Amino acid sequence: MRRLQIDSMELIGGDRTLEFSPGLNVVLGPMATGKSTIVKLIRALFASVPNDLAPEIGVNVPSIRAR
Question: Kindly report the CA angle at 37 between 5 and 59, in degrees rounded to 5?
Fold first, then answer.
């Protein structure tokens, strides 16, 4: 079995970095705060960029980088 681990994800242009702790990470927040977008961006790290990203992501975040 392969192990996949993301320690951090940087939204280039958005000036935001998400830090993940070892183990299970839970993202909580009110509606329309970006929880689903985080999951879509993680998916984009390993596959193609989803077509249903919020328009502001394409304008404000031209690329992402993860460690």
Answer: 115
Cα–Cα distance for residue pair 28/12, rounded to 1 Å: 23
Which residues are within 8 A (CB) of 11 and not within 5 positions of it... i.e. 6 or more apart?
17, 18, 41, 61, 64
What is the tens place of the pLDDT at every residue in 21-67?
998 999 999 998 888 888 888 888 888 777 777 777 777 777 888 88
pTM score: 0.72
Judge whether 8 and 66 are in contact, CB under 8 Å: yes
Handedness of CA 59, 32, 15, 52 (dihedral sign): negative
Q: Which strand (E) or helix (H) includes residue 39?
A: helix 35-46
Round to whole Å and give the CA distance between 14 and 38. Answer: 13
